[in-house]
Design goal:
single chain, 60s Ribosomal Protein L30, Chain: A, Phosphoribosyl-aminoimidazole Synthetase, Chain A, domain 2, seven-stranded mixed beta sheet, four-stranded mixed beta sheet, binds adenosine-5'-diphosphate, binds magnesium ion, metal-binding
Amino acid sequence: MGEFGLIGRYFQRAVLQQAGDPAAVALGIGDDAALLEPAPGCQWVISTDSLVQGVHFPEQYCPTDLAYRALAVAVSDLAAMGARPLGFTLALTLPTADEAWLGAFSDGLAQCAVDHRISLIGGDTTRGPLNIGISVHGEVARGRALRRSGARPGDLLCVGGPLGDAAAGLALVLDQPLPAPLDEASRDYLLARFWRPRAQCELGQALQGLASAAMDISDGLLQDAGHLARASGVALHIQGADLPSAPALRHWPARQQLDWMLRGGDDYVLLFSLPVAALAQLGDWPITVIGRVEAGQGVWLDGQPIAGDGGYQHFKESADG
Ligand code: ADP
Ligand code: MG
């Protein structure tokens, strides 16, 4: 099967091309480029992510999960901006055109595309070491995008869901020793939180006009909070006891739970600041207040300043680098 047969069979599928709002895609796969149709009065929202084996995902993976995760991670950046997903492109580099692998990958991609209502509109297919590049496109009403820079002293600091799940899920993927036996339901839940994160697009859109700043947590709460603090020119004070965790995490000792909630990456829940008066308007959303925005700088945990970035960084040579 050649490149074009492969594209036609695994990527030009109706389920992938029509996963999102059909009105948003004027021209999809098949020409030299795609045409998108944003709603009048909207701004374009664009983000790109690459996934490299051994860096962004472990060697032990299932192609269906891998595809789901690759797309969800990319869409999460749209959620963080308060955008509505429209379409995505896929730059896929593969060592071989293994049909079983491609079928499984295409299925996971389709599941994620449908879950997030985003259509595959184009891409590129090349041979080489496995690499997945995804660009996502969305729209947001002009001037309504959520940014990292608007947090103000007095605002509440909130997260959109439990923390630490994906780090625990990764420990399971890597077969790390368990402190206590884990029931099947907890195992399934944590693995799904690592392999099948749900980008919080609906929450992001609901936060428009309410949140003063927002971002998604991909590299761990402390590190990402550091970015938000810097962009906004404020200090973020977090209460460790207020961090939300799922019941499945409680199989691990408290210290491990806290470390994963603070430093584990890959949860893809939203982190945002909210004027106190706006909290009541989000009554139906399962959000958690984890701290406060204050004048100053940096991230503080239970009154103590956090040194360094406290999360994952590429190109970082040593702990003090
Ligand atoms: P070109 O050579 O003009 O860049 P290609 O031959 O690479 O175009 O691709 C042909 C069509 O197939 C284009 O519409 C392109 O967007 C689409 N395409 C190629 N690879 C993928 C892929 N992995 N997923 C989705 N669409 C793809
Ligand atoms: Mg061309």
